Amino acid sequence: MIARRLRASLKGWGGVAAMLVACALTLVLALLLPLTHPRGNGSTGTGGPGLAQATQAKDDSCDGHPERMSPPPSNDETGRAVTAIKQRGYLSVGVDQNSYHWGYRDPNSKGSDLEGFDIDLAREIARQITGSPDAVRFHAIPTNQRIPAIKNHQVDMVVRTMTITCARLADVSFSEPYFTTGQQVLAPKSSSITGYDTSLAGRRICSAQGSTAGAKLTEDRKSGRLAVSADISTTVPNQLDCLVKLQLGEVDAVVTDGALAASQAAQDPTVELKGKPFTTEYYGVAMNKDDKDLVRRVNQVLEDYRKDGWQASYTRWLSQTLGKDSTPSRPPST
After folding, report:
1. Quick one: which of 22, 56, 80, 267 could link to 6 by a disulfide (CB 3.0–4.6 Å)?
2. Rounded mean pLDDT of 158-175?
């Protein structure tokens, strides 16, 4: 009926052009009709192809640069999340206590307080929001509990060598990047493993549960980039547990962020990094998706911190293991 009425109304236009216009309009109407009739279950259309395509387009955009998905910085402190922190009087932060020079307890320091690069950043965020770098309560959180702790509001944020990924952006929000790294292989110096290559065939590889390393290992073994014979079944709650298993001979190699692996190599002179990084990843401060005002405020803290504080912290904690030149470790400019 739609096509017949259109042909009648277009009488006099003549020829093929009129029919092409009629067909095109009919097709547009046919595509739009399913989207205007919601189902009883809350979905739309007869299968939702339009919605699926829209979701895929968003995923494609994120897949290219998830580190660029954070909102712009802001000094505004009138938002709900920031106001709640200021009224409470302290910042609640999930951190690691076992990552050497990132977030760890030095038994030789007075009081064995938490210290490291991530700890410095958390204190700077607390300073700018509350007025004191000491107005922060740290909560040691395993790798696989970072996202649940944020979603359940157990902490305001997690500052714990957490890589920004598209998959994680579905559950939490991230700040702009504050550090650049990449996945690398850690193995005994005496090992014949040469890197993320065929030398891992038949080897036992350890990764942390919920880590980007574990996801990468699974993906690459399925695609054939990693030998099918590689045993990736060993996973642990905390990354440091992989180093322990390596020391005990229970695994042959560890795959983790190069920045973390370098710190573990500094703890144990019998192990070393093998080969070059095989990914590029960015650490970000993770927060609850509802706390958009806090994300923007943290981004402003990072803007200020890069100008004054970031380099000093890098020099103190990381230059020993990653080198004095911090340029490769700086976040992207875009």
Report:
1. 22
2. 96
Burial class of residue 166 in the structure, from the number of CB atoms within 10 Å of its CB (0-12 exposed, 13-18 middle, 19+ buried):
middle
- 179 with 331: CB under 8 angstroms? yes
Whole-number Cα distances in Å, 54 to 48, 51, 58, 316: 10, 5, 7, 46
Q: CA–CA separation, 133 vs 151, rounded Å?
A: 25
d(Cα 303, Cα 178) in Å, to the nearest integer? Answer: 9
pTM for this prediction = 0.79
Q: For the stretch 94-113, what's the b/e string if a residue is b when 16 or more beta carbons lie within 10 angstroms of its beta carbon?
A: bbbbbbbbbbbeeeeeeeee
Single-letter amino acid code for the residue at 315: T
What is the gyration radius of the CA atoms in the chain, in angstroms?
A: 26
Nearest Cα neighbor of 157 from 173, 181, 177, 178 is: 173
Phi-psi region of 96 (alpha: psi -120 to 50; beta: other; left: phi over 0): beta
